[in-house]
């Protein structure tokens, strides 16, 4: 509209500006077309008067029309590209198997932490697989004790076979996250089964989230460490490094998603949804 307004005021002086401008709007083009037709049909009438008339008509009729430039900064709606992981290709350029093994261990450690620290019910099944560190090695309680359910509210651990392991077992029970308060009587350990409260469930769920975040950070640290090794290798082309980086990131994301799935299943269990 600015060009048309100027054209109305200056007549034919703007003719060249309108015709040769970079991208005249549709209204300007139509005005110029009519001006061309006029010049062929009626050479006696001044072009400035004709241009003023048609410009005024169009301004009155289309005063709300605006010509917008294309937005070059408009973001694409397309999703992120899917990256395929080529294990043989990765193994050719760095210690891929080592990185993969460490990521797998991080996820496995999360599972073990959930078993060790976030068991909801103090059942014989939960106690069977509870880890115990004894004399530098790791065992489960069923390797060290005979587990007996005395009644619905009490579990007894008979430690006659490994009495020297009693302190380690007591420590593991208290740190299990199952809200246990074990009591020792000679070579037996009595475990009252606590009532599972809503507050206890919520605290365990928060603990599950905290352990997941720790695992996620560990995986991302492995990702960044290996990417840095590639970037520091001057023998690798830049494009190759970018390709390797994308695949390493995709692999790390895969293990993070697996850890997240395990966390969500655990939280569902803790909240009583399963």
From TrEMBL:
**GO annotation terms (biological process):** translation
**Keyword Transmembrane helix annotated:** no
**MF terms in GO:** ribosomal large subunit binding
Question: Can you supply one Gene Ontology CC term for this chain's record?
Answer: mitochondrion
Q: Which domain of life is it from?
A: Eukaryota
Q: Which UniProt keywords apply?
A: Protein biosynthesis
Give start and end of each Ribosome recycling factor domain: 111-270
- The protein's name is Ribosome-recycling factor, mitochondrial
Q: Name one Pfam family in it.
A: RRF
Family stated for the protein in its record? Belongs to the RRF family.
User: What organism is recorded for this protein?
Assistant: Macrosiphum euphorbiae (potato aphid)
